[in-house]
Amino acid sequence: MTLQAEMDAPTGPAASTRPVYEIARLGKIYPRNGFEALADVNLTLAEGEFASVIGASGCGKSTLLKIMAGLLPPTSGRVALGGTPVMGPRADIGMMFQQATLLPWKTTIQNIVMPIAIREGRRAAKGAYQQARALLDLVGLSHAADVYPGELSGGMAQRAAICRMLITEPEVLLLDEPFSALDELTRDFMNMELQRICTERNATAFLVTHSIPEAVILSDRIYVMQANPGRIAEIIEIDLPRPRTLDLINTKQFGDIVGHIRGKLDQEYR
Amino acid sequence: MSEYSELSPAAHRAAQQAEANEAAIDTVWVEAEPLIDRIPRWLAMLGLFLAILAIWYGSTALGLVSPIILPGPYETWRDILFVGSNLVSGDYMLEAFFTTGRTVIYAFLIALSIGFSLGVLVGETKFGERAVMPYLVAIDTMPKIAFAPLFIAWLGFGIQSKVALAAFIATFPIVVSTAAGLYAASESERALFKSMGASRIQTLVALKLPLALPYLFAGLKIAAVGVMAGAITGEFLGGGEGFGALIRVSASQMNTPRVFSLIIYLSFLGLFLYLFIVWVQRTFVFWNKADTPGGVG
Ligand SMILES: Nc1ncnc2c1ncn2[C@@H]1O[C@H](COP(=O)(O)OP(=O)(O)OP(=O)(O)O)[C@@H](O)[C@H]1O
Ligand SMILES: [Mg+2]
């Protein structure tokens, strides 16, 4: 079994890879109610690494992701992307939410170039159309470029959201349960697509999820979180070979890892 | 059933049963729609119209109501034609129609600009929400028609006092609907714009205002009814040259058919404004599917 558990290990992955995102001694207390949502969170994302965070509802996953995205200020600790502290939303951070949130009055391609339109203006957005079409090709959505989102299925909408996230060529992708609103078949398919896209672009990604199999099949490394205050309880390296396919789910090795994580999460409810 | 004639009676029955079952598989159960639900819209409307006309004609022809209270359909129709020819020939009634029309359009544009600005102030700023909104709610609960004498005292018997009253009535639904629409952006839409580094103005223009449009148009339809009521009330109370004044004069002369036909032409004005709003809405809010329930509006 290639499963190794390291308790309280804030170390990064293999030293040869360049760290992209660094978080050290991160703490978050919501000033409104004094609630301590995160305490002493340490993690490092290496270039091209896919990491997931999994944990019970309310343990602080979304809080962590919002801080990483620069949407929420941390109370203490160091949060740095590419060596510079994250002090607010940045162009080199790509985000995806549970809802695709495409604007219904813009066509798919207009939605995709929107981050550029907001940051650099309309002319730059027009200039990005070619790049947007290439991305639509990448996710197999080129036929829907000039269609309004009302005509897209849930899976197609999320694929468009992937393109919108990638259009600014971000350093790191932050994904907050991006496919949890989709049905299971579509979700499996989208996960395989995500793996392919991340591998193709050597993307650094950080995924929040509730699904253990989803985390295992996608990740190089899983952070298991515990609540009150939100902290990383265990780091699990997944050494399964890539590219991973859905068949992997039926292997004993996969089942063992899933079982281990489930046991860890169940402890919380006892 | 010649094929079964050699079988025993029991077997025969069983075979018949099997055949019946076979047939049952082909039976498609169609839910019967009652006749009244199958009538097309135009026929339903025409039918109801004729029914009302018949009741109307019957009650006047039998002398159940006095012609001063309710003139018969024929007298009314004749007067409608008379007023129509007067309008077409550009006589004094056309003048009056234009006066009321101008009042309604000015009032609507004023209500739109003031209402929209106040709506953005209330919906977008904490100051507007905390300081301005309570006063607006307080004024909105007052019967606004009661302000008519004040507007006449301030602005005289001309068109201005009528425009002011109509705009005053129509402003509030626009404020409320604009403000409500600005709250319509969801948590993830706000987070998306924040993560793209959008400024407050960019978020307002590119996200919140487009999302507010369906609400705004719902408010505009209410406002369209409000400006009509305001303009006519103003003309009843403050005289002048409009249709409201014509109606009042006709009513005081017991010319009931004239009142009816004036009201009908007046309703065209309101309908025109309403349909114009619907047309603009269809063009700008094409993406909102919840806009046209049952093909009305
Ligand atoms: N704005 C806020 N103010 C105060 N407390 C908050 C706020 N947002 C979240 N919290 C609290 O912080 C804790 C962590 O919330 P968070 O949304 O990060 O959880 P989560 O792990 O993403 O949960 P879920 O899996 O249900 O999405 C929760 O207990 C929540 O009540
Ligand atoms: Mg969450």
Structure write-up:
The complex is a heterodimer of chains A (270) and B (297). Chain A is α/β, with parallel strands linked by helices and 270 residues long. Chain A has a domain of 153 residues: 3-Layer(aba) Sandwich (Rossmann fold). Helix content of chain A is 34%, strand content 26%. In chain A, strands 1-11-10-4-9-8-7 form a 7-stranded mixed beta sheet, sandwiched between helices. A 4-stranded antiparallel beta sheet of chain A has the order 3-2-5-6, covered by helices on one side. In chain A, strand 5 and strand 6 form a beta hairpin. In chain A, helix 8 packs across helix 9. Chain A is globular. The N terminus of chain A is likely disordered. By secondary structure, chain B is an all-alpha fold. Chain B has 2 domains: 34 residues; 212 residues, MetI-like (MetI-like fold), CATH 1.10.3720.10. Chain B is built from 12 helices and no strands. Chain B is flat and about 105 Å long. At the A-B interface, helix 3 of A face helix 9 and helix 10 of B. Magnesium ion binds next to helix 1 of chain A. Magnesium ion (MG) binds next to helix 1 of chain A.
Low-confidence stretches of chain A: 1-16
How much is the average pLDDT of chain A? 89
Range of strand content of chain A: 25-35%
* Alpha-carbon Rg of chain B, integer: 30 Å
The count of strands of chain B amounts to 0
Output the structural class of chain A. alpha/beta
What fraction of residues of chain B sit in β-strands? Answer: under 5%
Q: Into which percent range does the helicity of residues of chain B fall?
A: over 70%
What can be said about the biggest beta sheet of chain B? none
Report the bound ligands by name, code or SMILES: adenosine-5'-triphosphate, magnesium ion
- What is the terminal separation of chain A in angstroms? 27 Å
Number of strands of chain A: 11
